[in-house]
Amino acid sequence: MKQIILARRYAKALFMVGKENGAFSQYNEILRTLKDVYQAVPDVALTLANPMYPLDVREKMMDSITASLSVDKPMGRFLRLLVQKKRANIVPEIAEEFSALVDAENNVCQGHVVSAIPLDDKMQKKVRKTLAKLTGKDVNLTTSIDTSIIGGIIAKVGDLVLDGSIRTQLAGLKDSIKGRE
Amino acid sequence: MKRFYNRLVPALVLALSLSLMAAKAPAQEAAPQAAASATEQVPGQTARDEAGIKALVEMGEEDGTVQSKADAQREEAAVGHAETGGHEAGSLSKEKLNDLFWRVVNFVILVLILVKFAAKPLGNGLAARRQKVREEIEGLEARRQDAEKAYQELVAKLAGIEKDIKEIVDRAAEQAEKERARIIEAAEKNAADLTRQAEMAVQKELLDAKRLLRDEMADRAAAMAEEIIKSSLTADDQVRIVDQYLSKVEAVQ
Question: Is the CB of residue B237 less than 8 Å from the CB of residue A159?
């Protein structure tokens, strides 16, 4: 929780800078890339946040990463600041918070749908339309398959969860039978 | 002391009479030998007199009958002496009179000696004895009175004890009755509680059994429904279910 609060604080600051520069979409992409790098190579985060290594060494390592990503100067200073403040390990959380800020700025939200069978484009479009009506925002929809839900879908948009799965309906039926006197 | 002398004097008179009677018989039988044996008989006579006096003194302490007996003997001796006095006085010789005189003197001396040396110890002894007997009598009387008083107190106490016993028994009976009522009430209450608890336990067991049965039935029903749905659900059914759900969500919206 503490990491999320810190990440939100850094993300807001960076988003304000990016919004002034009109480069927050670029910053969003850079942070997503860094998040993927952290997840792919966990030693990167461990090394950047490890106080056993000298600060200049860690700064040089971050500089080399930013150079490879061709980031602008404010973004480079931001990443160097994370290293100096020993917050380089919360880059994935900053990326998430920054993405949420960008989505809010673009009136877009992230949605995920779980289904028992693969959804065709028509169904995805219909689901996206329904979720857009519910949230009032455009929905970037991702899908996954889980046969344990038997049938129907489970859609998640932010804090909103729409559970129309057969498994949940059977559970409700079972609870209603158990709870009926 | 006065009583002692009152007893001692008749005894001495009796002893004197006896000594005179004892002296007259040998004088009649052996008058010629009286002069010769006078000096020998005086000590023996004196000893007999002393023993007689002692016996009489001892007897005189016991009761007044001795005194009365001595008085009777003295009177008898005086009467005999009066009847025969004139005849014998005329027949007594000078030697006999002299002998009698010395006997009397001897006796008087003996009496004086006895009075001089034995009166005081005997009087003290008799007084001490009398005082002791009186104290014993007084002590016994005091003890008798104490015993009587104690007896009266015990009788009164016994009457009070009987009353106390009766009160205690009544109180114990009352308490026992109350205790019995309390025990019965407690037992009835416990019985009611046990009955209520048993009923509650039965109801709880029944509800638990119903709940378990219902849960089991619900689980089996859900499992059976899941199997049936899985086996019978097609791709078209999946699409239709999603459509229906989205329509329902839109309708709610």
Answer: no
